[in-house]
């Protein structure tokens, strides 16, 4: 409890390359991620900070990443419409704002492109992320791919509707009765 | 009681498998301490002063005899043969081994129980009125609604990493026994003038280091919209609650910072999008939830039996004491609700041994349709006992040490585990409770005092509800020494109020003496049948302060 803010080193035993899971399968990532707020990176295609992307929104080799405190206004959502993908940052895995952002992007604004989780993306959060509309998961470097894939299917039932499922369990029960 | 169907069972079983895998990865060094932390907390596992602590969920305080027997077995097999009922209607094990926890969870799943979201920054176990479904003053039975909330909040994908923990309490009675004003969300069911069922929705209450009383977000929410409205509130909190300082992260701080109007405006704006969405409840869903809480097959109780019961009460003083304090009126004539006291001097308030659990499970089967409720005052209730069986039940409870006729009195202390178990504690709390119980054990004196809530917490976190005790005791740390701060005038009922600190804190040995002085002032100043709280409110803080700090 008292050690809440203390950062623990990741254990050394795990693989050191970061992996991308897309639609439940491991894929090779063609995008580079840049956190530089001012300059565009050399390599392309690149995911860049939202503010920087907005200056170059017409380029199809750039895509934005949203900080977790982004206020997703209708204007912003309309601008994101043309992005090849939208990444949402998890600065710490305990920052749960990204789940709401993803749901709003999908459910409220109907964004149909890739929504990618970046940052502190850990195995034990993937199931919830998927339910909230993330279809691409850029795992933190130390995360084991095999366990990550397994975690996606940890549950076969859920009580609430979310992006993956439009029907709450109470409605399903009534339908099946 | 709610019974799982195959969906509930599958979910709980899959949760056990998931945690087993997480524990394996942790023990193998593949899951770091920091990453494991929220995972174990959301499965009820704390790391405490002496050992891990496991908090088992008892949804809205309802237990079956089978479940209680299973809990007894678990405490024998994995712990030291006892458990601790908490103010949030849960059960805590103080001595499990960390590696055993997946097995414990698997055993719980076999009796439709779990420890999901009993801790961590997520929506916690929903609490309610221990007399739900049987109270005379009940307008609407809250249990089906609690169950709908339980399902909605369980593994909610969007709300597993909130800024801070989130607690919901529901009442459907005129008298609030669920402390809805000091929860993150408090819900009161009522019927409007047209007889339509509605919710009064409060938000922003809470205890901890900055206690606050919840304010009304919506006075008259139609029942169909319960879940979408809750979702809107929690979503606003998830987005805007503070994450930079964990002491300022509860929803109460957000409500306070925005003001209730602005907070409500944001909720309504969010809700406008969610309203009438797939989570809108319909009669079918609510009726289905209600089928889990049928009236038990009560038998008719003859008028002569009621007369005999009243007569026994006249004749037998000890029985009368038990009835007056521990037996509650029931909506059905001839039936009563009986409170089993878990307050004994030999044990911490709320503690229960495995043997007692087994015995209570049997008693519940004999006298109460196999159902037990846990109260937030850390006692147990058999909710449906016919009056002609109360005498026998009383005798059997007495043999078990659970017939202490002190429910609602000064001796019915709410107390957190404190320094004996909890690593956050500033001071011990259980020995304080015991010292007070010892000092004021004369029953006639206790009865003369009437209802007084005395609540003790070992630190600012307020697990022992000291802010809402008529008398509140808080352990504080001064340069490494244990002191106790005393506050007066708190109350968790409808006329809710937060206690006011009396003055400089006291040594541990002096606490019972200080309480004695406070009680003297009350006894001298009270008018007729006036309760402690009312006398305090009438004569004011100063009179108590002067006496206590007089040289
Ligand atoms: C022994 C291990 C325990 C630990 C480490 C612990 C930890 C905490 C912490 C840190 C808080 C403050 C949260 C906040 O202010 O946001 C808190 C509040 C609380 N805890 Fe505990 N607790 C423990 C045991 C208990 C027990 C045994 C009970 C019931 C008897 C309990 C019931 C509560 C309640 C009712 C609150 C107040 C909720 C509020 O602030 O609204 N806890 N606990
Ligand atoms: S009030 Fe403090 S000492 Fe008591 S259980 Fe809670 S955190 Fe521990």
Automatic annotation (TrEMBL), chain A:
<dbReference type="InterPro" id="IPR008318">
    <property type="entry name" value="UCP030820"/>
</dbReference>
<protein>
    <submittedName>
        <fullName>DUF934 domain-containing protein</fullName>
    </submittedName>
</protein>
<dbReference type="Pfam" id="PF06073">
    <property type="entry name" value="DUF934"/>
</dbReference>
TrEMBL record, chain B:
<dbReference type="InterPro" id="IPR006067">
    <property type="entry name" value="NO2/SO3_Rdtase_4Fe4S_dom"/>
</dbReference>
<dbReference type="InterPro" id="IPR051329">
    <property type="entry name" value="NIR_SIR_4Fe-4S"/>
</dbReference>
<protein>
    <submittedName>
        <fullName>Nitrite/sulfite reductase</fullName>
    </submittedName>
</protein>
<keyword id="KW-0408">Iron</keyword>
<feature type="domain" description="Nitrite/sulphite reductase 4Fe-4S">
    <location>
        <begin position="412"/>
        <end position="548"/>
    </location>
</feature>
<dbReference type="GO" id="GO:0016491">
    <property type="term" value="F:oxidoreductase activity"/>
</dbReference>
<feature type="domain" description="Nitrite/Sulfite reductase ferredoxin-like">
    <location>
        <begin position="53"/>
        <end position="110"/>
    </location>
</feature>
<keyword id="KW-0479">Metal-binding</keyword>
<keyword id="KW-0560">Oxidoreductase</keyword>
<keyword id="KW-0411">Iron-sulfur</keyword>
<dbReference type="Pfam" id="PF03460">
    <property type="entry name" value="NIR_SIR_ferr"/>
</dbReference>
<dbReference type="Pfam" id="PF01077">
    <property type="entry name" value="NIR_SIR"/>
</dbReference>
<keyword id="KW-0349">Heme</keyword>
<feature type="domain" description="Nitrite/Sulfite reductase ferredoxin-like">
    <location>
        <begin position="350"/>
        <end position="399"/>
    </location>
</feature>
<keyword id="KW-0004">4Fe-4S</keyword>
<dbReference type="InterPro" id="IPR036136">
    <property type="entry name" value="Nit/Sulf_reduc_fer-like_dom_sf"/>
</dbReference>
<dbReference type="GO" id="GO:0020037">
    <property type="term" value="F:heme binding"/>
</dbReference>
<feature type="domain" description="Nitrite/sulphite reductase 4Fe-4S">
    <location>
        <begin position="119"/>
        <end position="273"/>
    </location>
</feature>
<dbReference type="GO" id="GO:0051539">
    <property type="term" value="F:4 iron, 4 sulfur cluster binding"/>
</dbReference>
<dbReference type="InterPro" id="IPR005117">
    <property type="entry name" value="NiRdtase/SiRdtase_haem-b_fer"/>
</dbReference>
<dbReference type="InterPro" id="IPR045854">
    <property type="entry name" value="NO2/SO3_Rdtase_4Fe4S_sf"/>
</dbReference>
<dbReference type="GO" id="GO:0046872">
    <property type="term" value="F:metal ion binding"/>
</dbReference>
């Amino acid at each position: 409890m008292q050690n809440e803010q203390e950062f623990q080193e990741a254990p050394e035993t795990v693989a050191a390359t970061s992996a991308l899971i897309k639609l439940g399968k491991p894929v090779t990532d063609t995008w580079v991620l840049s956190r530089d707020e001012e300059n565009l990176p050399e390599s392309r295609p690149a995911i860049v900070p939202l503010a920087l992307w907005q200056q170059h929104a017409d380029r199809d080799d750039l895509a934005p990443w949203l900080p977790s405190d982004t206020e997703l206004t209708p204007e912003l959502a309309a601008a994101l419409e043309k992005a090849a993908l939208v990444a949402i940052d998890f600065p710490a895995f305990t920052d749960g704002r990204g789940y709401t952002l993803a749901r709003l992007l999908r459910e409220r604004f109907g964004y149909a492109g890739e929504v990618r989780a970046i940052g502190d993306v850990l195995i034990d959060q993937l199931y919830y992320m998927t339910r909230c509309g993330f279809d691409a998961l850029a795992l933190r470097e130390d995360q084991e791919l095999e366990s990550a894939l397994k975690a996606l299917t940890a549950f076969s039932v859920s009580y609430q509707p979310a992006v993956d499922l439009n029907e709450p369990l109470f409605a399903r029960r009534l339908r099946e009765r | 009681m709610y019974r799982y169907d195959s969906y509930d069972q599958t979910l709980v079983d899959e949760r056990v498998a998931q945690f087993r895998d997480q524990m394996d990865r942790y023990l193998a060094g593949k899951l770091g301490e920091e990453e494991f932390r929220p995972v174990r907390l959301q499965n009820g596992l704390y790391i405490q002063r002496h050992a891990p602590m496991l908090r088992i969920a008892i949804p809205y305080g309802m237990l079956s005899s089978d479940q209680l027997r299973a809990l007894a077995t678990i405490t024998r097999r994995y712990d030291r043969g006892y458990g601790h009922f908490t103010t949030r209607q849960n059960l805590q094990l103080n001595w499990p081994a960390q590696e055993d926890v997946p097995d414990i969870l698997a055993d719980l799943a076999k009796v439709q129980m779990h420890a999901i979201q009993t801790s961590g920054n997520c929506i916690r176990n929903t609490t309610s009125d221990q007399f739900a479904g049987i109270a005379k003053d009940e307008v609407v039975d809250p249990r089906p609604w609690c169950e709908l909330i339980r399902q909605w909040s369980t593994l909610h994908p969007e709300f597993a990493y909130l800024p801070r923990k989130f607690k919901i309490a529901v009442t459907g009675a005129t008298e609030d026994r669920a402390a809805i004003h000091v929860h993150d969300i408090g819900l009161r069911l009522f019927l409007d003038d047209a007889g339509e069922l509605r919710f009064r929705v409060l938000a922003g209450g809470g205890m901890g280091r900055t206690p606050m009383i919840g304010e009304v977000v919506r006075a008259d929410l139609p029942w169909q919209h319960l879940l979408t409205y809750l979702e809107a509130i929690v979503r606003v909190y998830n987005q805007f609650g503070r994450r930079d300082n964990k002491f300022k992260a509860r929803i109460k701080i957000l409500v306070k910072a925005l003001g209730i109007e602005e907070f409500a405006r944001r909720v309504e704006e969010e809700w406008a999008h969610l309203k009438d969405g797939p989570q809108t409840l319909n009669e079918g869903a609510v009726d289905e939830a209600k089928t889990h809480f049928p009236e038990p097959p009560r038998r008719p109780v003859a008028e002569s039996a009621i007369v005999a019961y009243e007569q026994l009460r006249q004749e037998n003083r000890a029985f009368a004491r038990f009835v007056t304090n521990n037996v509650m009126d029931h909506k059905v004539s001839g039936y009563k609700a009986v409170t089993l006291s878990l307050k004994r001097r030999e044990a911490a308030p709320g503690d229960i041994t495995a043997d007692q659990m087994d015995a209570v499970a049997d008693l519940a089967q004999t006298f109460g349709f196999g159902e037990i409720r846990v109260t937030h005052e850390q006692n147990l209730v058999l909710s449906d006992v016919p009056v002609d069986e109360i005498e026998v039940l009383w005798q059997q409870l007495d043999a078990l040490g659970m017939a202490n006729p002190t429910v609602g009195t000064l001796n019915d202390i709410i107390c957190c585990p404190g320094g004996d178990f909890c690593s956050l504690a500033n001071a011990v709390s259980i020995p304080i409770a015991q010292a007070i119980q010892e000092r004021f054990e004369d029953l006639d004196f206790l009865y003369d005092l009437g209802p007084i809530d005395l609540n003790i917490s070992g630190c600012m976190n307020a697990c022992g509800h000291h802010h809402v005790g008529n008398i509140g005791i808080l352990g504080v740390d001064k340069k490494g020494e244990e002191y106790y701060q005393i506050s007066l005038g708190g109350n968790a009922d409808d006329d809710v109020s937060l206690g006011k600190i009396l003055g400089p804190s006291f040594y541990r040995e002096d606490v019972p003496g200080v309480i004695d002085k406070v009680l003297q002032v009350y006894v001298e100043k009270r008018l007729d049948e006036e309760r402690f709280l009312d006398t305090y409110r009438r004569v004011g803080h100063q009179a108590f302060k002067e006496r206590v700090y007089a040289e």
